[in-house]
């Protein structure tokens, strides 16, 4: 039986970061699927009192908050290392992970992706075009900054894959499924190429919404 259990709704980009990290570590895992709309249930709130996802179980140790989970996995599964040894590169990784949580997801992906992808697919909702348009200025700023910080490096924090790549890529992959990505990606060919490199990795191809949903159904 896998020693790591990931509690999530299939399709969550935050859970995808966790699953991709486990795959990069060549570690087996199982998925404990959560039905959409049930994260506030009494049973789930015992795992995560704020009703968010994912939650990681490792034996009798339960951990929530995606960044905490990713760093924990990199400590208990040290090879390959996904945190740069150089202090400045590690700080850049941390910065990019926080940009992902506070600026890329908040106000960009949780608006544009929700109205274009998640809401229509899970809830049958029509996109709110006004909300999407209002999110675009922030989206342009975030995408431009991610591209600037990437620069000419192959990966976000340097020459090697890091937790930053595994944290940011699932969010951008979702955003790339929207028509807004055509405009957003046009000025940032380096970032678009980075996303293509990221999406080509086994850890990303194995953790698409469809693949995770199939794993959850088999659980």
Short characterization:
With 219 residues, this protein is α+β, with helices and mostly antiparallel strands. Helix content is 59%, strand content 8%.
**In CATH's first tier, which class of the largest domain applies?**
Mainly Alpha
Low-confidence stretches: none
Largest sheet: 4 strands, mixed
Record the strand order, biggest sheet: 2-1-3-4
Tell me, rounded to a whole number, the average pLDDT: 95
- Computed Rg: 17 Å
CATH architectural label of the largest domain = Up-down Bundle
In helices, the fraction of residues equals 55-70%
Shape: globular
Class by helix and strand content?
alpha+beta
How many H/I helical runs?
10
Number of strands: 4
According to CATH, what is the topology of the largest domain? Glutathione S-transferase Yfyf (Class Pi), Chain A, domain 2
Q: Would you kindly provide a written description of the structure presented here, covering whatever features stand out?
A:
The protein is α+β, with helices and mostly antiparallel strands and 219 residues long. It has two domains: 4-81 and 204-218, Glutaredoxin, CATH 3.40.30.10; 87-201, Glutathione S-transferase Yfyf (Class Pi), Chain A, domain 2 (Up-down Bundle), CATH 1.20.1050. 59% of the residues lie in helices and 8% in strands. It has ten helices and four strands. It has helices at 13-24, 42-45, 66-76, 87-123, 129-150, 163-175, 180-185, 189-199, 202-205, 209-218, and strands at 4-8, 29-33, 55-58, 61-64. The protein has a four-stranded mixed β-sheet with strand order 2-1-3-4. Strand 3 (55-58) and strand 4 (61-64) form a beta hairpin. The chain starts with a strand and ends with a helix.
């Amino acid at each position: 039986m896998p020693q790591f259990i990931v509690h999530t709704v299939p399709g969550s980009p935050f859970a995808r970061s966790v699953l991709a990290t486990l795959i990069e570590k060549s570690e087996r895992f199982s998925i404990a699927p959560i039905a959409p709309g049930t994260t506030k249930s009494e049973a789930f709130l015992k795992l995560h009192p704020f009703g968010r996802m994912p939650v990681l179980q490792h034996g009798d140790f339960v951990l929530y908050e995606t960044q905490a989970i990713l760093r924990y996995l990199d400590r208990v599964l040290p090879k390959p290392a996904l945190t740069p040894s150089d202090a400045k590169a590690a700080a850049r990784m941390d910065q990019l992970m926080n940009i992902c949580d506070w600026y890329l997801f908040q106000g960009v992906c949780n608006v544009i992706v929700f109205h274009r992808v998640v809401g229509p697919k899970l809830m049958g909702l029509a996109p709110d075009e006004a909300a999407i348009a209002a999110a675009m200025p922030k989206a342009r700023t975030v995408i431009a900054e991610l591209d600037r910080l990437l620069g000419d490096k192959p990966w976000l924090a340097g020459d090697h894959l890091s937790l930053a790549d595994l944290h940011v890529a699932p969010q951008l992959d979702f955003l790339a499924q929207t028509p807004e990505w055509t405009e957003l990606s046009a000025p940032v060919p380096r970032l678009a190429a980075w996303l293509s490199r990221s999406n080509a990795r086994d850890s990303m191809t194995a953790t698409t919404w469809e693949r995770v949903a199939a794993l959850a159904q088999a659980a």
